[in-house]
Amino acid sequence: MIPWTLLGTAEIPNNGGELRLTQRDNEFSIHLKGVRGELMNSRVRSSEQALADLGCAPIKKLENAKVLVGGLGMGFTLEAALKATTASSQVIVAELVPEVVEWNKGPLGECANMPLNNPRTKVHVGDVAVLFKARKPTYHAVLLDVDNGPEGFTHADNDSLYSIKSLRAIRDTLHPGGILAIWSAWDDPKFSNQLKKAGYKVRTEMVRAHKGKGSRHTIYLGGK
Q1: Torsion angle defined by CA atoms of residues 224, 173, 40 and 98, in that order, rounded to the nearest 10 degrees
Q2: What are the pLDDT digits (tens) for 84-130?
Q3: Are strands 90-95 and 5-12 parallel, antiparallel or unpaired?
Q4: What is the DSSP string of 31-74?
Q5: pLDDT tens per residue across span 178-210
Q6: Is 153 helix (H, G, I), strand (E, B) or coil?
Q7: I need a labelling partner for 195 at 20 to 30 A (CA). Which of 25, 61, 158, 173 fits?
C-alpha cells in the first residue's frame, strides 16, 4: 500500500488544533492531528457539491448574483457554486485558515479544477462571521460548510455562527428571496427549529457522500 505523505500543517486560530494535509498517490486528506478520522477527503465530494447545487438552484439564471461560501476546504463547494451561477455572478469564499487557501493554490486545487483561479472568485481570509456584521442585503445565497455542521467540530467559536442571533444576522445579509444553505454530517431537528425561530422557511435534503452511496449528510435550506 502506498504510504501517506505529509504535505503541510496549519494551526487553527484560537487553539483549534493542528490541521494536517496528506497525500497518497492522487488522493488528498485533511485531518486534525490527534483526532481519529479525517475532516475531508478528495474522493468524497458529492455532498459538498450538493450544498452549492441546492443553495444556488433558485438563482442559477440570475445575472450579477453574489454568493458567499463559508469554508474553502478542498474547493468542491466553490467549484460547484461557480458552475451553478451565471458568468456575471461573483462567488466569495471565506476561509479561516490561511494555509488552506495556499494548499488550494497548489496540487490540492487540481482536485476541484483550481476554482481559486476563476476571475469570478474572491477570497476572504478570516472568520466568515465578520461578513455578516453589516446586516445589509448583500448576498443572494450563503453556503456554509464550516466543520461538521451546527455543533462545530474543529473551532469552538463556530458554535456561535449557528446561534439564533447570528442566523438572524445572516438573514439580514440576504436579498429578498435569498437562501441560506448549511452542510452537516448529520440531521438535527432541533437545528431546523432554530432556523425557523430565526425567521427562515426551512426544508432539509439528505444527500450521499458519494453519488448514490456512502454516508448520508444533511443540507439545511433556509429561505428568506
Answers
A1: 180
A2: 999 999 999 999 999 999 999 999 999 999 999 999 999 999 999 99
A3: unpaired
A4: EETTSSSEEEETT--HHHHHHHHHHHGGGTT-TT-EEEEE--TT
A5: 999 999 988 888 899 999 999 999 999 999 876
A6: coil
A7: 61
* Residues facing 92 on adjacent strands: 68, 122
Average pLDDT, the chain: 91
Three cell numbers written together for 105? 493554490
DSSP classification of residue 136? S
Cα dihedral sign, 5-46-70-121: positive
Predicted confidence (pLDDT) at residue 153 exceeds the cutoff of 80: no
> CA 105 to CA 183: how far, in whole Å?
24
Which triple of cell numbers denotes residue 204? 432539509
- Helices 189-197 and 164-172, axial angle in degrees (round to 10): 50
Edge-to-edge strand ranges of the sheet holding 213-223: 121-125, 90-95, 66-70, 139-144, 174-184, 213-223, 201-210
| Residue type for position 210 | H
Owner of C-alpha cell 478520522? 37
* Alpha-helix residue ranges (DSSP H) falling in the chain: 46-56, 76-83, 98-105, 164-172, 189-197
Q: Helix, strand, coil: what percent of the chain each, to 5? A: 30, 35, 35
